[in-house]
Amino acid sequence: MTATRQGRLVGLDVARCLALLGMVATHVLDARTPDGELATAQWLAGGRASALFAVLAGVSLALMTRKPLRGRPQVLRALGILGRAVLVALLGLALGGLDSGIAVILTYYGVLFVLGIPFTFLRARTLVLLTVAWVVLAPVASHVLRPHLPERGYENPTFAQLDDPGRLASELLLTGYYPVVPWLAYLLAGLALGRLDLRDTRLLGALTLGGLGTAVLATRISRALVDPAVASENEGGMFGVTPADGDWSWLLVVAPHSATPFDLAQTIGSAVLVIAVCLLLERLLPRAATAVLGVVLGAGAATLTLYSLHVVM
Questions:
Q1: What residues does each domain of the chain span?
Q2: Please, what is the average pLDDT of the chain?
Q3: Residue 88 banded pLDDT, cuts 50, 70, 90
């Protein structure tokens, strides 16, 4: 579906553009107001923009693998995805070496794509169930394993860290800013979403309500269970994971970049909400308006390039 409702999904490009703008905003704008309050951009996009970016990666992977293949063509397609993932990861290592002050997502993103390849063979219903299970169990596994892993020692993955592959793998998978093991929940959610009929207006309406309900419910339950002082202290976000030496109550927080069950559920819900609304706009707006929307927010078709440029700048 393009502006003519066929081919490319303009709504997905719009969602990608919003994810990119949100990530840039959290990187370049002050997180706090002069009064010490959480800034609007940080409150709105902190943790959510990068999660939207990751869920959209799953949607893209689903669309790339929607056509059934058998035998050699299937192997070639998997190798093509693997090749893309390696190139993205290498670009992330290069950008990570710059003194940007930004937690670069691309190397984690590449690893996420590699680990997602086996899940492209699953159907939507299985992917939904697996996503729910991953949201609950992956943070628990992370909490159990991280005390036995090396402490995170780097701001970003870089080529220099290839000299210590064990520590690099530890950071990419569990202890880094975008830990791939819990973040695989985002990719699985996106894969499930991409297996659906994204032209069905009624389905998109249901996804809008479901995403909103999930985000609100996860936030409210967490706030009811967590000490208000702890919630307030971490409202601006954490650094990818909860403290490795923290107790189990940390898994109840909903803070951005904490990779807890409530954080994953809330950000998946918000990502589904944004994607569904963008696709609904594409379906409901006249063709001319959709074409204009595609041009105005066309940055969503070049997110890798623009994200890399903003890190360099």
A1: 10-30+38-312
A2: 90
A3: very high
When computed from its CA atoms, the radius of gyration of the chain, rounded to whole angstroms, is: 19
- Give the Cβ contact number of residue 188 at 10 Å: 27
User: In this structure, are residues 122 and 130 in contact, taking their beta carbons and an 8 Å threshold?
Assistant: yes
Amino acid at 194: G
23-32, pLDDT tens digit by residue? 999 988 888 8
Q: Where are the alpha helices (DSSP H) in the chain?
A: 10-28, 40-45, 48-64, 72-96, 106-116, 124-145, 165-170, 180-194, 201-225, 228-233, 261-284, 287-296, 303-312
Cα separation values, 112 from 7, 86, 192, Å: 26, 11, 15
Nearest CA-CA partner of 294 in 278, 277, 271: 278
**Contact (Cβ atoms closer than 8 angstroms) between residue 92 and residue 48:** no
SS3 assignment, position 255: coil
Work out the number of other CB atoms within 10 angstroms of the CB of residue 96: 23
**How does residue 296 score in pLDDT terms, banded at 50, 70 and 90?**
low
CA 296 to chain centre: 23
Terminal-residue alpha carbon distance, the chain: 34
pLDDT at res. 229: 87
Q: Nearest CA to 180 among 194, 190, 169? A: 169
